[in-house]
Specification:
- The protein is α+β, with helices and mostly antiparallel strands and 233 residues long.
- It has two domains: 54 residues, no CATH class; 140 residues, Alpha-Beta Plaits (2-Layer Sandwich), CATH 3.30.70.
- The protein starts with a helix and ends with a helix.
- Helices cover 52% and strands 14% of the residues.
- Helix 2 packs antiparallel against helix 5.
Length: 233
């Protein structure tokens, strides 16, 4: 089918592409007014006593990593956290607009887990700054509380306990919103998709109606044929 034939079908069935373009425009406007999201990735680092994250074994000690993993498991009630292609993938990039994710820092991918740091990452995404901040403080307190209570249960002395420290710079909460260029690109993509689907719908509807009319004409000719023959005789 040529471009001219497609355009003719769209003009004949103009209601279909016009409806799709109107729906795409409405959806685009609603998404543009969404206002973005607030997000943060807070890191709680676990270390042995008298060590820092700069020490040779400060954050890559296997026993400390295992302990941090146990804390994460306790917070998630034994359920494994959601996984994405890479650990660097932003939580909001998966379409999450309000939610939390607590997981052990993973340098692997969605198929192979590689835990080389004793860092617990608390990811929060929300519609408002206050909600994200409240959930951030709640989960940080929960991580520190579970880490402390588990070591008390083991009756470890304070000098031998693993320390849990919030990395200060990771408490920052960011506002993520689409730029004007991204909004224009998204609008153009939505319009192109609407026109493409509208063209397909117009051509399909035109073919179906043409076949239906041809079938109706054929039935009419078969019915009227014997009547005319009888009248002639």
């Amino acid at each position: 089918m040529t471009f001219r034939e497609i355009l003719s079908a769209m003009l004949r069935r103009w209601v279909i592409p016009l409806t799709l373009v109107a729906c795409a425009t409405l959806v685009t406007v609603v998404l543009a007014r969404d206002g973005g999201v607030y997000t943060t990735t807070t890191v709680v680092s676990f270390m042995r006593p008298d060590t820092t994250s700069l020490s040779p074994n400060g954050s890559n000690d296997l026993s400390v990593i295992a302990f941090a993993g146990a804390v994460v498991q306790a917070i998630n009630n034994g359920r494994p956290p959601e996984r994405y292609s890479t650990d660097e993938a932003p939580y909001y990039g998966a379409g999450v607009r309000e939610g939390v994710l607590v997981a052990l820092a993973n340098s692997g991918n969605q198929w192979v887990s590689t835990f080389t740091r004793s860092d617990v990452e608390i990811r929060v995404v929300g519609r408002s700054f206050d909600w994200v901040e409240a959930r951030q403080n709640e989960l940080v307190d929960k991580v520190l509380s579970i880490a402390s209570s588990q070591q008390v249960t083991l009756a470890r002395s304070s000098q031998d306990r693993i320390t849990a420290t919030v990395v200060p710079l990771t408490r920052q909460i960011e506002h993520i919103t689409a730029s004007r260029t991204s909004q224009l690109a998204a609008g153009a993509a939505m319009l192109a998709a609407a026109v493409t689907v509208g063209a397909w719908g117009s051509v399909t509807a035109d073919r179906l109606l043409t076949k239906r009319r041809a079938a109706a004409t054929a039935r009419s000719s078969r019915v009227s044929g014997p009547v005319q023959a009888g009248a002639t005789s």
